[in-house]
Amino acid sequence: MLLLVGIALTLVVAMVVVVTRGGASADGARDGAGGGGGAETGAAAPGSPVAAPTDDGATYVRAARQEAGWLVERSDGSSFTIDPVEDRSAVALGLSPDGRWLSYLQARRPGGPNDLYLLRSDRTEPERVEGVAAAPGFAHRWSTDSRLVLVPAVDGGVAFVDTDATRVSGPTPPGVTGGFVDTDSIGWVRALGEGGTDGLAWVVTGPGLEPGYDVPLAVGAAELAPAGWSGLAVRQASLAPDGSRLAVLLADDGGRARTLLFSAYDGSLVGSGDGSEASLDLSCPPRWVDGRLEVLRQGEPCVIPVG
């Protein structure tokens, strides 16, 4: 796990060099790997029982990688194990903010679209959401009130799944989502100009993509099209839980990757780091742990950030 580090520090970890700029902080540094806190999914085969139901309102509190699979823990102290051997194609585990839902994607075929599965904490079997064809390589996101799941779709649109009524809609998004800003708004990173080299903008809309406001991100050709690179495209984005910072993960056709860290308030660039597609997992959004940004390495478990 790679982290962007604090003010005026430079950290070299594997192939990533991270430099933060004055005026804002991306706190802390830690290089974790494997075990305890990470979560992906190796969810059991769709339709098969995976957990005993609870009647006391117990919620999901943690999902961690174990030697025998994935351990999912509940607030009442109970737990169950998800065996990745049972379902090798399931990816990207998510827990809703209220802890009542577990979500994951499963590929229909190698390289093909993904299905979204949901498992409520008081039920025993995951359910496939009808009418959703999720794009491979992009993550689903939970809303802050745990009612909606945002799923980038293979047709270039986006599906919003309502856990109350399983309603699905598919407007065309203005960019790559950074997650829910609050209950009523969603943030997107939009590339500007031909090839996206004219800059980036943080675009905030309503859940139905109603116009909200834009924040230009202070980044230019030197960062988006560095000499010797083929031009960077936005792959993932992640808004900090407190809404103050925005991480953008980009990659070029040559397998090089760059992470940029911005203030979500004024768009100023406060940090950056370079790596490679071989070393970083570009299919998983950067995530925030105790105020620190973690960029996942290849082979590490992917957990979907809240919001």
Key structural traits:
307 residues, mainly beta, 6-stranded antiparallel β-sheet, 4-stranded antiparallel β-sheet, 1 helix, 1% helix, 42% strand, disordered N terminus
Could you describe the 3D structure shown?
- The chain is mainly β.
- It contains 1 helix and 23 strands.
- The strands form 6 sheets. A 6-stranded antiparallel beta sheet has the order 2-3-21-20-19-18, with no helix packed on it. It has a 4-stranded antiparallel beta sheet with strand order 7-8-9-10, with no helix packed on it. A 4-stranded antiparallel beta sheet has the order 14-15-16-17, with no helix packed on it.
Topology:
Elements: E1 2-3, E2 10-13, E3 16-20, E4 60-66, E5 69-74, E6 79-82, E7 90-95, E8 101-107, E9 114-120, E10 127-128, E11 141-142, E12 148-152, E13 158-162, E14 176-182, E15 185-192, E16 199-205, E17 211-217, H1 221-224, E18 233-239, E19 245-251, E20 256-263, E21 269-276, E22 287-289, E23 292-295
Antiparallel strand pairs: 1-23, 2-3, 3-21, 4-5, 5-6, 7-8, 8-9, 9-10, 11-12, 12-13, 14-15, 15-16, 16-17, 18-19, 19-20, 20-21, 22-23
- Helical content stands at under 10%
Determine the structural class based on helices, strands and strand pairing.
mainly beta
Outline type: globular
What sequence of helices (H) and strands (E) makes up the elements? EEEEEEEEEEEEEEEEEHEEEEEE
Mean pLDDT over all positions: 75
Largest sheet: 6 strands, antiparallel
Number of strands: 23
Stretches where pLDDT is under 50 for at least 5 consecutive residues are 1-50
Q: Order of strands in the sheet with the most strands?
A: 2-3-21-20-19-18
C-alpha-based Rg, rounded: 19 Å
